[in-house]
C-alpha cells in the first residue's frame, strides 16, 4: 500500500499535480482571509459612522477607539488613528454604491 501511494507521486507529472493543488489551496485560503478582513473593515467603518452620529463633535471618539483597540490588540498595526480615519472614509465612499450592487452579486467560492 505504501509503495503504491509513494509511486503515484513520483516523477514530474505527480509532483507537478501536487504542486498545483497546493498552490490552488493556498490561493483559496488567501482569498478567504482577504474577504473576511474586508468584511471586518466594512463593518468597522459602519460602526464608526454609527457611533459618531451619537457623539459630540470634538469628543475624541476616534482617537479613543484607536487607543482602546491598540491596547486590546497590541500586535495588530491596523488600528492607528489615521487608519481608522481611512476605514471611515472608505466606508462612506463605497456605502453609496456597493449595497445596491451586492444584491445582484453571487457569492465568491
Mean of residue pLDDT values:
82
Low-pLDDT segments, ≥5 res: none
Count up the helices. Answer: 5
End-to-end separation in angstroms reads 35 Å
Inertia-based shape: elongated
**Main beta sheet, described?**
none
The count of domains is 1
Helix content: over 70%
Backbone CA Rg: 22 Å
Query: Can you write the helix and strand succession as a string?
Result: HHHHH
Structural class: mainly alpha
Name the beta content range. under 5%
Total count of strands: 0
Please explain how this structure is put together.
The protein has five helices and no strands. 75% of the residues lie in helices and 0% in strands. It has helices spanning 2-8, 11-53, 61-72, 81-95, 98-102. The two termini are 35 Å apart. With 109 residues, it is mainly alpha-helical. It has one domain (13-102).
